[in-house]
Amino acid sequence: MNAAAREALTVSGLTVAYRSDAGWLPVVEEASFTVREGEVLGLAGESGCGKTTVAYAMLGERRPGSRVMAGTVLLESQDVLAMPERDLQLLRGARISMVPQNPATSLTPTMICGRQVMEVLEYHRIAAGTAARRRALELLEEVGLRDAPGAFARYPHQMSGGQQQRVVIAMALAARPRVVVLDEPTTGLDVTTQWRILRLLRQLRDRFGTAMLYVSHDLAALAQICDRIAVMYAGRIVEVAATRVLFAAPRHPYTRALLAAVPSLDRPPEAEPALKGSLRRDELPPGCPFAPRCAFALPACAVTPQALVAIGVGHEAACWRWRELDGGLRALAHAD
Amino acid sequence: MRPERPLLAVDDLVVVYRGGPGWLWPIRHAPAVNGVSFEISSGETLALVGESGSGKSTIARAVEGLVRICSGAVRLHGENVTGPVRGRTPDTKRRIQLVFQNPDGSLNPRHSVLTILSRPLSIFRRLRGAHLRQAAIELLADVQLDASYLARMPAQLSGGERQRVAIARALAAEPELLLCDEILSALDVSVQASVIALLRRLQRERGLAYLFISHDLSVVRWLAHRVAVLFRGEICEQGRVEDVFQPPFHPYTEMLLAAVPRLDGGSMAPPPSATTGAGPERTRAEGCPFAGRCPRRIGPICDAEGPPFQQLRDGHAIRCHIPAGELASLQTEPAMPAAPAFAATTSSV
To answer: Is B337 an 8 Å CB contact of chain A?
Structure first.
């Protein structure tokens, strides 16, 4: 019961489909996960794996042409997916908020930044007038903008990408939401700026106990901030584990191949790319979606559906050969 | 080291953008590129690294002849080709090709892959009809796409496929130098790996040279032969990749490397300037461009005098007032991990 109370976000069986010529095509299937208070859960995967669709579903947002076919998204025991639009508008920004990828397009270009933070406070009736102004200044300071009054009065185009993202984070945190969803928040920023934004997010998480769902294709960035990581492939979560466990002992062949493909300063890339081919949504087998690209697949994999199974404490993988392949995977890793 | 003439020589290049976005722009007259010199030989990859706004793309555009050069020279095989692209001979244009960061913006959405590849094939190689089609199929094979892609439209391709079509289009001109402006940054790691393998193979087979612009030091480390580190339009360090990626570093290079996220996560050493933040670029025009942010600043000399290029081994040069030996001893401890931490954790579990 206590453990349940600490869950800020509980997603079960989330299935989202997009309209296509051949009917509804599922892009997210049976996604289930929880994010606890003060926890950062990473959602990793390549483009087209459905991670952004999941991110938007957390706020009850449907991307154009998509439909939630099944599942629940519980935010403090209320199902976001069952809420009417009017309630969602009060929910978004107040109890759950979003930091999207490109700060330049998520800020209004014709409004000074301080005004945009004030708007969040006024919309959710947290503060108004001079109180809102004072609070907005505090928020801009909180996100590490050195000259908060200066930042308040500037238009977005007068700021660097990193400063813009700080303003967006200030807006996302303005109403002290329980959950913040971040969609590739540092993609496109310089490494030094990324470093500072990641540090800021960790500080804010520690200070306010905010739960975060951090969506990114960048495993190295996820490694810096996440407590746990869920790996998605073709709309399905194929592995979930504590960050250290996932990087040290990946059990799903896709996770392993993905990690091997991440460029690193410390080791040269493998001569043969570990992940061959590309994800073809139109050619998915009825069984494991990764089977066509998997180096360890048996003929039976393509016809046998795989579900996440617990394989260790807090560690789940959707590969029926995880036990059998464990030794083999490591033998291969050493042979490299 | 280099007996023959380099393929490309850029000498003391200066580019100034006029005006800027308006009266609010604080550094209107600061050059985007200031006194940049480098050479690239056939079959060689030179990487330009630095933060956004450091002038990386401007340099590529100046080499291609797309921006006005204020002073300095661009030479191809010793021949001066400085100046706008419209003044260049077709042969010079053919030899230098540019691939952009975003294939969505550089491929015409209304043209099929065949039409996209046809233009350079007819302009630079005067091919028509069946010969042109055959050449287009061969180009697609070079980037590991089959002939069925000829009829496809850009919207029917994945991001990686589009980038490969953009590379195939550049290759259609049979260039000697490919300017790659952040061509991997929009791609997934698996697609990145296959494009990197492609670039390596083309270089091996044809002696293609690359000016490889990237902010991803982990890619640059294993792809480039030499690296030039740019800060505010000026080169602060240049040399062979193995020399630039180990001490002594220019303090800015050191900061960039420290900020690279690592898979073992936990280490995440603070970049030396973490507390400094994005400070003023330089306190005085004649000083070191990095002085305002430099964590290893030694005193007034940094503001007053432009630092000298200290020449180290094999063309490795660091532009800093601190003697290279001193930098090396300051930096040997934290910067490079003794052993690959990722491999270590893998074997211990």
So the answer is: yes
